[in-house]
Amino acid sequence: MEKLVLIGNGMAGIRTLEEIIKRDPDRFEITIFGKEPYPNYNRILLSSVLQGDSSVKDIILNDYDWYEKNGCSLHCGEEAVQVDTEQKVVYGSSGTKAAYDKLIFATGSDPFMLPIDGADKEGVIAFRDINDCEAMIDTSKTHKRAAVIGGGLLGLEAARGLLNLNMEVDVIHLPEFLMERQLDEPAAAMLREELENQGMVFHMNKQTVKIRGEERVSGLLFKDGTSLDTDLVVMAVGIRPNVALAAASGLETDRAILVDDQMRTNVPDVYAVGECVEHRGTVYGLVAPLYEQGSVLADHLAETAESAYEGSLMYTQLKVSGVDVFSAGEFTDGSDTKAIRVHDEFEGVYKKVVVRGGSVIGAVLFGDTSDSPRLLDMIKKQTDISEMDKAAILPSEKREASTESAVVSMAEDETICGCNGVCKGDIVASIQEKELSSLQEVTQHTNAGRSCGGCKPLVSELLELTLGDAFREADQKEPMCGCTTLSHEEVTAEIRDKKLTLVREVMNVLGWSEPEGCSSCRPAINYYINMVNPEEAEDDANSRFINERVHANIQNDGTYSVVPRMYGGVTNPEELRKIADVADKYNVRMVKVTGGQRLDLLGVKKADLPSIWEELGMPSGHAYGKAVRTVKTCVGQDFCRFGTQDSIQLGIDLEKKFQGVPTPHKVKMGVSACPRNCAESGIKDIGIVGLQGAWEMYVGGNGGVDLRQGDLLCTVTSDEDVIHMTAAYMQLYRETAKYLERTSHWLERVGLKWVQEQLVDHEANCAALAERMERTIAQMEEPWEQIVNSGTIKQDYFDVKHVTT
Ligand SMILES: Cc1cc2nc3c(=O)[nH]c(=O)nc-3n(C[C@H](O)[C@H](O)[C@H](O)COP(=O)(O)OP(=O)(O)OC[C@H]3O[C@@H](n4cnc5c(N)ncnc54)[C@H](O)[C@@H]3O)c2cc1C
Ligand SMILES: NC(=O)c1ccc[n+]([C@@H]2O[C@H](COP(=O)([O-])OP(=O)(O)OC[C@H]3O[C@@H](n4cnc5c(N)ncnc54)[C@H](O)[C@@H]3O)[C@@H](O)[C@H]2O)c1
Ligand code: SF4
Ligand code: FES
User: Where along the chain is [4Fe-4S] cluster bound (predicted)?
Assistant: First the structure.
């Protein structure tokens, strides 16, 4: 067997090995040197780990079993430090000596650190690997302010993650507008506005000349003499290919290692792939081109095909939730180009398609990227558009969420997964021939969705289109977390079948790999056992998030907030006096009216919480819980001349009925007495709108980062009907959503039509759901009252000493 050595255990190198093994599993005896102490992981999803959507465990692409199963000897945490290309031997930093017949360099890049005074201080980091990600997460627990230098893709994704970690985030950018390598000025301006709305503060045209501080960073000094205080600096100003070892080994380098169309270097039997490569003058920093290189190298080494790498089209998408940005090819205007533009400031949509001769050569999309697969295809194929209608190239309308799925009209050879170069036809063929029925299976067999994950919604749509009804049953197989292979649905089914009522019991009986579980699965299991069996389940407070354990929201300075319940947003002088007294007595830092029409007492010490609740004598507003929180109401027919219904009374009734009912994620409601919608019913999880003699019920609205207008579920005629339908709808959501799935995402996943079939078209089902909701309501207790009356809870969770009960 020939010996193959790979230097660099990263995304490009391991993908190349996968491709070689797929072509000829027995051809090579493989040795790998990997400087990082981890198996190959998805570097792209570090952004998602930082933003709190995945854990490090979730982003491992090839676990240690994979190396063993495929006969790859991995020297994990060992750097290759010398290569003797005469003797054909690689030497590792821990003494490993590996002989090779063929050698691949896949050493990737290092982040570029600005060589300025103070760059070596504690608290100055890059964003490239797991360590950087963990450093940011740890810093956020002890410090408040972060500065990101560089407003490119990486910098903005880092900034979003730091915001999610509750830090105050400043972004320092050298040019005049953001992402200047991917966007033109109008798109960049819209992006800036959106990110400012999300909480980022931008400093444009700023050159950092010094990092201030003693041992640890305390601030930045700019060339124009201005400065900024900060506790953490993340440098995201580009990358530099890692070529030192290659150059020292006699490989020709310029900006990176020079290769030909078969990824050969100038030294016989030595190849290179990935970010460390320069091909025809271009160095790539995105996975799609790197994987194309890997595929060509695999053809060459396994001698399966005579393919050639001829360069790649660059295109990008920013992975920041709530922001849709796409950029491909040549997007700047030139003397020989013309552009089709759509700029709708009302919808927040900007589209530009750049044309040279009769072909599309580039595009920038902001706010609506649904045209991206089609445009990418046109650019790749250099489609002749001279005879095409402008509207066919760039439709001016924003694609509505409810219109026909985008995949229906896609051609068979149109790309669905850009990162991995997988087209619609290949995915459909795999689904049909290999009888695939879940997203995970499609990813396993085709690689679609295995990198940035941006194409997953399209792959799901394709599964649904190909399988029809069989899809809903099947597409539920993503494991709950790294502790189990079971999906959320399978865990719930097991809890139901085996009548499991304790969190520990679930983990034991279902064979959890981590006996203590993790922060992802424990709260989910606790929710499921209580949802399935409200009478018997034993709630495990230690499996709840901190806010739910102490029944108050922890704030960025470690204090808490207290929100008493005010049904329908209505209060009275007596309650207001009690709130004012408590605020005075306990030096509450601020009393604030919330968006849900409540009074929020901010800046409360943990040990004071039980006494405050006792003195208020009001129910908890559940503002901290994955539960029904508020029902916001407009003043309605009693006070407003447009009012058609008594919105206040319905709001109070709804809130009294459903207050605190545990749900997969928070649930907010609104009741407006006419379509003017003063209670913002259109963006609530459940929004009620009064008409003459009827109520419209809207569902799946969301006013947060992923703004979504609710869909009309049904129109009913009485308050009782609204309450009945709300009970059934909420129970359906409780039973079929994954823990931490908002109603808006759940509704998009299961589809409005299916929900209507369960509730509106199926009266008996609707009644059964409402009845199951009643079982949960019957078990509800007032949490603040419980704590006030329990000395042990006060001591265990609130550090309250000398309790007498
Ligand atoms: C936060 C983040 C988000 C990203 N998002 C996207 C995205 O959305 N889309 C996209 O297309 N791309 C994205 N990228 C870029 C993408 O991750 C990289 O292009 C890709 O990982 C490069 O793969 P590579 O194998 O060439 O290099 P790397 O992944 O850097 O792997 C190289 C490996 O080699 C190791 N190594 C180096 N020298 C030695 C040596 N001498 N001995 C042993 N080991 C060595 C390194 O430690 C490293 O583990 C993102 C990058 C980051 C950091
Ligand atoms: N969604 C994605 O596709 C994605 C996400 C993250 C990272 N990446 C890749 O990772 C790599 C690194 O990303 P990146 O954003 O660091 O690189 P980049 O080179 O794309 O962007 C760096 C940005 O920093 C700015 N900059 C340079 N010097 C500066 C200075 N002194 N002060 C302030 N700003 C300065 C530049 O103008 C540029 O906009 C790239 O290859 C990128 O493609 C891709
Ligand atoms: S929603 Fe209609 S009824 Fe209610 S306050 Fe506004 S205008 Fe008046
Ligand atoms: S487009 Fe990135 S994984 Fe498919």
Answer: 634, 640, 674, 678
